[in-house]
Amino acid sequence: QEEIVLSIKIIAYGGDKKLLISRDVTHLERIDTMRRDFVANVSHELRTPLTVVNGFVETLLDMEDRDCDMAKRGLQLMGEQTERMTRLVDDLLTLSRLESDSSVLHEETVDVPALLDLVLQEGQRLSNGQHTLTLHLENQHKLLGNRAELHSAFGNLCSNAIRYTPAGGEIILRWQDVDGQAVFSAQDSGIGIAPQHLPRLTERFYRVDRSRSRETGGTGLGLAIVKHIANRHQAKLDISSEEGKGSTFSLVFPNRRNAD
Ligand code: ADP
């Protein structure tokens, strides 16, 4: 059941006559709640790594005879957390740039097959030999779009496929032509997603399993970024998944974006 929020103003005029004005502000209220939640989430996400770093800095400073192993471990953890924070801040900045009205799409002809070769190599580095990664180029379409943004969208979907697939699993990247529409997809044989989560996956900081996302270095912003990039290219993000079996994330581009 949906709650409706009304703003009511009572205006008195002409002695005991009163005018009651009511306005439906449900939408504004919802936006405000989302904004507040967002700020709260951001602060929370930024604070956790900072607490770890600060804790270790204090411990290292307090140590009388500095145990070398302890110092090394502390410094290693600090390094990991600051890296995580940098990723988070970078993703936040990317997202706010994509969201700002003034951010126009600088279009060019993007050689998608060549770009996907690069995404595959980056994926192989991330997987570190733990998965089988393949790229099926079923068409050679170039696309009208922004190369950096497309790189980010394809890269995010590929790295998610790797991060949510246990070692030994398989990841297939495809560039296909389906009824004249160019389609990119990243298919994995990973943990999959239960259906109730699917509609919320592209919300910022929405994660099915917070600890798994953290463990694998996620910022919780990847799919929100992908969704924005898809919208800017009039593309559709399709997700199909089965828990325990794997997922396929696809970007379907309208045929007028074909550049060849
Ligand atoms: P994160 O940085 O947490 O990966 P994303 O926005 O990229 O953030 O993804 C949001 C959530 O969607 C993830 O936390 C994860 O629960 C789920 N998810 C994304 N991609 C996959 C995938 N290929 N397989 C299973 N779950 C996925």
User: Which structural class is indicated by helix and strand composition?
Assistant: alpha+beta
- Molecules bound to protein: adenosine-5'-diphosphate
Unreliably modeled segments: none
Note the total helix count: 6
Q: Report the helical percentage.
A: 40-55%
Largest sheet: 5 strands, mixed
Q: What's the quaternary structure here?
A: single chain
Rounded to the nearest angstrom, the distance between the terminal CA atoms is: 49 Å
| Mean pLDDT over all positions | 88
**Extended strand count:** 9
Radius of gyration: 24 Å
- Beta-strand content bin: 15-25%
Q: In sequence order, what are the helices and strands, one letter per element?
A: EEHHEHEEHEEHHEE
User: Main sheet: which strands, in order across?
Assistant: 4-6-7-9-8
Gross morphology is globular
Provide structural commentary.
The chain has 260 residues and is an alpha+beta fold. Helices cover 46% and strands 23% of the residues. The protein contains six helices and nine strands, in the order ββααβαββαββααββ. A five-stranded mixed beta sheet has the order 4-6-7-9-8. The chain has a two-stranded antiparallel ribbon with strand order 1-2. Strands 3-5 form a two-stranded antiparallel sheet. A hairpin with a 3-residue loop joins strand 8 and strand 9. Helix 3 packs parallel to helix 4. It starts with 5 loop residues before the first strand and ends in a 7-residue tail after the last strand. The mean pLDDT is 88. The site of adenosine-5'-diphosphate has 22 residues, from helix 4 and helix 6. Keywords: ATP-binding, Cell membrane, Kinase, Membrane, Nucleotide-binding, Phosphate transport, Phosphoprotein, Transferase, Transmembrane, Transmembrane helix, Transport, Two-component regulatory system. It is a multi-pass membrane protein. It is found in: Cell inner membrane. GO terms for molecular function: ATP binding; phosphoprotein phosphatase activity; phosphorelay sensor kinase activity. It comes from Ferriphaselus amnicola.
